[in-house]
Amino acid sequence: MRYARHYGLYDYIGQTMNDVLITGSGLIGAMHLVGVGGVINALMSGNLNSVRDGNRVTAREYMELFGGYEMSGIR
Q: 30: closest CA among 6, 20, 45?
């Protein structure tokens, strides 16, 4: 979560990109599985499908899968 704050990625929360609503939990999940640098590049390019992990799963798929979880108790 510190990386997301440091790189200003929380600014993307609430936006829709590639038909996926960007949430805090989706962002953290994608960063963990695709990598921080990959997610940064995908968000900056406006294309969450542009980056994949070693299993060929895109940041978009991870954001969709992990999006919407409650994170208010996590700092």
A: 20
Predicted confidence (pLDDT) per residue in 50-74, tens digit? 999 999 999 999 999 999 999 887 7
Phi, psi of 56 (to 5 degrees): 70, 25
Mention every residue, 6+ apart, whose C-beta is less than 8 A from residue 62.
Answer: 26, 29, 30, 33, 34, 53
Where do the domains of the chain lie? 2-66
Query: What distance in Å separates the CA atoms of residue 66 and residue 55, rounded to the nearest whole number?
Result: 17
Sequence length of the chain is 75
Q: Determine the 3-state secondary structure of 2 from DSSP.
A: helix
17-29 b/e with 16+ CB inside 10 Å = b? bbebebbbbbbbb
> Residue 17 pairs with which residues in a beta bridge?
20
